[in-house]
Amino acid sequence: GMIAAIGVVIAARETGDVDAATLHLAHRVLAFAFAALTLLVLFASGRRAPVLGAALAAAVFAQVALGLTNAFSDTPLVAATAHNAVAALIVAMLAAIARRAGDPPTMQASIIRH
C-alpha cells in the first residue's frame, strides 16, 4: 500500500512539502524490502504452488527491472504503465498464494479418511 501510494505521488508530481528525491528513495527502499518479503513468501510456499511461485519470482524480477527502466528511460510513460501492471499482477499472485496457504489440508484429509 505505502509503496503504491508513494509511486502515485511520484507519478503525479504532487510532492507538496516533501522533496521528490526523498519520495523516490522511500519508494525504492520499500520496493526492495517488499521484493525481499515476496521472495521469502515464495520460498516458504513454493512447494504448494510451484508454477505460481515461478511466475511470482519472474514478476518480482521484472518489476525491479521495470522500475529501473522507468527511472532511466526516455519513454517513462510506457515503463510506468508496465510497472503498474506488473505490480497489480504481483498483488493478484500473492493473494492466490495466500488463499492456497489458507486452504485447510486437514479437512480434505479427514474427508478422504472417512
The SS-based structural class is mainly alpha
Terminal Cα separation, in Å? 44 Å
Percent of residues in helices: over 70%
- Count the E strands: 0
- SSE run: HHHHH
Mean pLDDT: 76
List the SSEs and their pairings.
Layout: H1 2-12, H2 20-45, H3 50-72, H4 76-102, H5 105-113
Helix pairs in contact: 1-2, 2-3, 3-4
Structural features, described:
- There is one protein chain.
- Helix content is 84%, strand content 0%.
- With 114 residues, the protein is mainly alpha-helical.
- α1 (2-12) runs antiparallel to α2 (20-45).
- The longest helix has 27 residues, at 76-102.
- The N and C termini lie far apart (44 Å).
Brief write-up:
The chain is an all-alpha fold and 114 residues long. The protein is 84% helix and 0% strand.
Characteristic key phrases:
elongated, 0% strand, mainly alpha, 114 residues
